[in-house]
Hints:
The chain is mainly beta. It folds into four domains: 29-184 and 270-288, no CATH class; 188-266 and 295-303, Immunoglobulin-like; 307-394, Immunoglobulins (Immunoglobulin-like), CATH 2.60.40.10; 406-452, no CATH class. 15% of the residues lie in helices and 41% in strands. It contains four helices and 29 strands. Helix 2 packs antiparallel against helix 3 and helix 3 (123-140) packs across helix 4.
Amino acid sequence: MKRTLLKLLALSLCLITLFSFIPTQTASADSGDTVTIESQTNSAFDYLEYYSNGKWKDLNTPKHWIESTDQVCYCIEHTDGNPHGATYTATPPSSVFSTSTLQGLQTILMYGYPCNTPDGFSEDEARQATANAIRFWLSENGEPGSYSFTNRKTHPNAIRAKTSYEHVLTWADELLQMARDHKTLSHSIEFTPSALTLTKSGSNFTGKTTVKLTNINSGYTLDTSALPSGVTVTGYTGTKSEQLTITAPASAAGKTFTITATGKDTRSLDNITAYVPSNDSLQKIFLCATTAQVVATASFGVNTPALGALKIKKVGDDSTPLAGVKFGIYKDANCSQKVTEVTTGNDGTVTVSDLDAGTYYVKELSTIRPYVVDGLVHSVIVVVSETTTLELENETAKGAIRVLKTAYVLTGTTASNTEYGQLHSPKYEVKGLPGCVFEVKDSSPATIWMRRSIR
């Protein structure tokens, strides 16, 4: 009766401490669920020995399991009796141990068996190494139900491995050190880059991101339910770190969306459940299930550029297509932020693709003869996934031809005295000559103008 009261008091103190410092864990079994626990007899083979009364004895480490599932579990009060067909009730792990003790125990279960079996170990060797690491840790923390000789700090030489099984004790000590260090098992999914802007590739948009999995032993899934129509993700296996390729059709231009990954691992604190016996003389039990639990999520954003196209069509004032006319395309009305320069082709047009949607300014830089350069700046709005056409007309360069026809015309006489008498000489002046007919031809040559001079 006294022993029962002491246990209840210790458990109550643990509960008070734990509720203050540690959040409630989601267990693999609901609190209050009952199971039946079975155990091997102490005659099973043991890999470790302890020294007592002048000789080495087997360090009994029998296997415990849940009858209905065959899941391996571990006793945590080693001085109490082994369960054989006994009924146990699930309880939160935080109701059994202090914060520090529980964190170390969680470390051992995350890195120990059945979550991990080191290379070269049998399953039973891995199980016994894990079970004894738990023994060592609980004894070191002074937990009730522990043997003093299993405290590796105060009795480092009280336990040894049997011949050929030194690796079992070595790994148990390694797990113990991890518990001392409170080594956590971090799980993560990372996308690089985590924000992806697709680029134009032919008629589609494409981009790549790399997914890195850390401690995700049960793979990951992608939620693609919100993707725009036609968007695909390739390169996905869900089982390893890998590169993903996202391809979007032209119809997805200007759209943004998010892809979320969910990773699972069997090494999850959510898999740990404590069980207490209905018979107070039996050991408490801890189960570490190997159910794949969600341990990490990550998302990456995808942006599909809002692109459109601009087509410039240049004609003369007689609607003739003009080839070789050069234009500058700018982002500002002052034409100081040039995007590109283009020149019209034989059909008088030029198309600029993959422009960000928005307002642009078009300025004619040079033209061909006999046309005049357009000095105006034309604004145009480029629309997503469309080709906007800007049609411009050049005026023919026009001038005047002035024909001046002159001749020497007799306008009078000039008198001068000579030794022979007065001499009258004719007087001429250069004057316009009316009545002359002129013909102007082009390079054809065709007559384009005929006129008679009038003065």
